Task: structure prediction
Amino acid sequence: MTTDTEEPTLTVDELAARAGVTVRTIRFYSTKGLLPPPVIGPRRVGHYGREHLSRLALIEELQHQGMTLSAIERYLEQLPADLSADDLAIHRALVATWAPDSAEDVTRAELERRAGRALSGEDLDRLAAMGVVAYLEDSDSFRVDPGLLRLGVELLGVPIAHETILAARTVLLEHTRDAAQELTRLFRDEVWGPYRERESDPEHVAAMRSLSAHMQPMVVQALVTAFQRSLKEQLREAFRAED
Result:
């Protein structure tokens, strides 16, 4: 399993192939500040790493959500500068949850092609536990969530038991559902209600449209930031208690 401490080893051509974009796109994103510069190695060759792959995946997901490059640029500027590739992958996974259901039915051969590796029975069970794939009646076919596949494959290398993944998924689903209900209630009572009363005001209508366009990424970023801080605090307390 690769880690963020490893030196970047991908050339721009290799990065483009892994990310499924063109070299021209990578260079364009770099000039816009959407991607950090590569590490310059011998003979002035730029090398890229996991952070670049994760940023490209996040940019792709934000585009799927309908955000313009300017909006994506503003979104990325607000993220902490020291985010690791894994942190960026978490952002992408959470952004993907706003997307409409886009599950596809594929054969095992096609699933492995998209995953970029062979998948054992244990791998498939772990991906199913994470909600990335689901078994179909045809034993050689699966329903896959393309938006989560890359992250799920990366997590296959993490030494976590299958049962633990199931338990963690249950916890996350329950608490995120509660958060979504509370946020919906707050939006309905504090935002939507007053809007209905003032919908004849052109300036208020324009403000509501702007809020609607930016609300999802704003909420995702707030949830990610709050969760990361809470998780760090809880882990710190847990390991302090072990000392």
